[in-house]
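Chapter summary example.
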Amino acid sequence: MVRALYPLCLALALLGANGGAAQTTAPSPILVIDSERLFLSSDFGLRVVREIEARGNDLASENRQIEAELAAAEQELTNRRTSMTPEAFQPLADAFDTRVQETRQAQAAKSRALNAQLEREREAFLNAAGPVLQELMSAAGASVVLDRRTVFISTTDSDITAAAVARLNADLGQGTPTPPAAPADPTAVPSVNPNE
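The structure predicted for these 196 residues follows.
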């Protein structure tokens, strides 16, 4: 029985030696980065967050004002209904419904444009961050940088997020804002108050 196990033990020993040699002759350091923290902790990302938040607050305020105006118009229409025939009231109700739908669509388009602006800014940041990450990877002798969210477990030594933020702050600062996208409907003309 001992003789039968000898070849098996020898084969396992040789296999283990070859596996160990392969690991030591071809190191492949892997670095990780928290891409969300990279963006949100950088001066560039902080600027973008402030701008988007301010525009979002303006949009929320505008939505509240529109909501109040529509509620007042609806109440006025409701008050008029009792003194009107159904035939006279129906066109007014239809016009109000159309106004509400158009207003909802316009405000939803503004919200989508704000989200698209955030994505454009994030993309511009990641494009600018690429060369910095490449330099950090080369300096560490690494062959790949993975997003922390895709890594099951790693040491904290492999995380270069803080170093990348420091370099990006030095190289990019707050960055240059990307211009807003063209309106979804290029034929749409903004309303102008003639009294201004």
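To summarize the output: Residues 1-27, 186-196 have pLDDT under 50 and may be disordered.
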